[in-house]
């Protein structure tokens, strides 16, 4: 009976040993039982290759015998301390053997309950973890170097936009002498109020994954609330679950760029102005060429025709008439020539390009010019001016207005009262000027039959000025159109660009 | 001799007078000259008489540089509003000078437009009149 009991106990013990071996086999670590003098009493491992020595060789051998002295002294010291303090210690170390120098291990001493003469030492191969750690450290170092030594401002923010870290360049940009001073502030305090909403929405877009990064031009506030134009690049640092942990901002000072941009814009404006002046000059030269060719050649060609007529004419009265026309043509030519020289002198400068006209002043002048007709009720001048100042030379507008009123009076003098209506208005980028009369042809149209009466007093200079005024409208990029308003009268509409 | 209707649009009254003098020397005494001193007046006349081809000219002489509406603007109005809708009226641009811009205008304009430069001689004018007379007969 007792034998049977012992047999059962032995059987149970064997099962426990089997269980223990299975347990050990499932552990990657090496487990030693070591005595307080450093002698290895036992050893378990699932991978005997990890042991470096044969298992039987190391049992009952001292640590000092197995390992180089420098390493074994450290182990003995830890063991002694663990026995003395009755607590476990750990040590990370590189393999003391030269042929696997790149292997890392972690040694942990563990006190065995109710035993004072031996303890357990667990050795874990941590080579993989150490390599990962080294990689992480390199990455961290790279980031730190890039962050701290960047030539643009770098700012690390918490997800609630609190300043965590920034580099020296940002401190310089924002003109803070004391580093801690910036840490006390929150991001909105560094942003000009005009851009606060814009910046906040950019952070939200990055946070919500709408954008991977947001690049914004905004004014930052340096020390003393000095506004500085900066280019801000916002990106996020996320954890393994994709949640934002930090925001990273790159901040570039655009002050110099902005100043250069302003200079460039100024230079561009100057170039545009010069280009405009040159274009106008070229157009004017063409126009003067045309005026020279037409207006000056007209009396000259008339003279030639008159001379031919005189040569063929037998009637003395007609000869006298032709001689008179010769005189008139000659005078016209001289007057036109003088006028043209005078005009060229005036227009040789560019001043008139940037002249403006006050329409109400022009109307006042016209009212004085036509005072006689207004007083005798043969003319009224009404106006409605939405735009009073127009970027166009006064002389030219005055010339057009005066011609149109004069023509209305001349052609439609049978009407009781000639009503002139002047309006100005703006539409999009153009200014419009309209001059209307009430000269509906109440008569059946009379063909001009009075051309035989040569009027010496016709002001050819005035017609040339009118011609030039019309040309000027085109030079300024405008148009000149004449319309018939059925049952109302005639209407001239001039459009001019709002500004040059 | 067949009656010929000649229209002249020119703001220069001396030229208009001399033009009439030249026409007076033509053997055809049935030439009727009608003068307009600016393009706008001529356009108004053509509009009013658009539906009556009998009032159309046989030849239209137009100066370029005129106040209100210049020669090219008048030609554009005639073309756009089809003011001579049932007759091919020969049109002459008559000017003391023909610039490149004018030639450009001519190329863009419709047919039946020719240039004639001032001063004009009776020979030039008669040649045009005679051609029209011949065309009218044929």
Describe, in plain words, how this protein is organized in 3D:
The complex is a heterodimer of chains A (500) and B (138). With 500 residues, chain A is α+β, with helices and mostly antiparallel strands. Chain A has 14 helices and 17 strands. Chain A has a five-stranded antiparallel sheet with strand order 2-1-5-4-3, sandwiched between helices. Chain A has a five-stranded antiparallel sheet with strand order 7-6-10-9-8. In chain A, strands 12-14-15-17-16 form a five-stranded mixed sheet. In chain A, β1 and β2 (40-45) form a beta hairpin. Chain B is an alpha/beta fold and 138 residues long. The chains are: A alpha+beta (500), B alpha/beta (138). Chain A binds chain B through residues 286, 289-290, 293-295, 297-302, 304-306, 308-309, 312, 325, 328-329, 403-404, 407, 411, 441, 444-445, 447-449, 451-455, 458, 463, 466-467, 482, 484, 490, 492, and chain B through 11-18, 20-22, 25, 34-37, 40-41, 44-45, 47-48, 64-65, 67-69, 95-97, 99, 101, 118-121.
